[in-house]
Amino acid sequence: GRFGDGENSNYLSNIPLGLFNLFLLAHYHRVFSREYKNNNIKSEWFRLYKGELPDSAIKVREHYKNLFELPIFFFLLCIILYLLDRVESIDVILAWIFVFFKILHSFIRLTTNNQEKEHIHLQYVILHYSLVGFYCFLNYSYIRCETNISGVFCL
What we know:
By secondary structure, this protein is mainly alpha-helical. The protein is 70% helix and 0% strand. It contains six helices and no strands. The protein has helices at residues 14-37, 43-48, 55-66, 70-84, 89-110, 118-147. The two termini are 15 Å apart.
């Protein structure tokens, strides 16, 4: 059923993911500052983005770029649900699953970054399927309201 009588509680899952993105931006800045101070990154790199980077800087840069791939679809979906005022319990559950596994994925990538382990693949698959499920339930909700199946009130 509908969740929270118009209270778009799904937006609560955006807060930790947004704050986590800010934390990762600060981490990005810290790594690049440290490597620059240790003369591992030349000042020309910041001007032209060309030249050698130490592994720690490459890892954090690639991870930060990744934050603007899949999570963009998550934020878009949350905005769509908010605008349509169609947040259901399953939407909130899937949103929190996505947030949890995105933070777990980031933690693994920035600490061990061991791609050979099965756990990173499993959590990445769960991350994607939670987002796909999120979109499927949005489409189902829209189709259900358009055809007015089972007397559901639609705006």
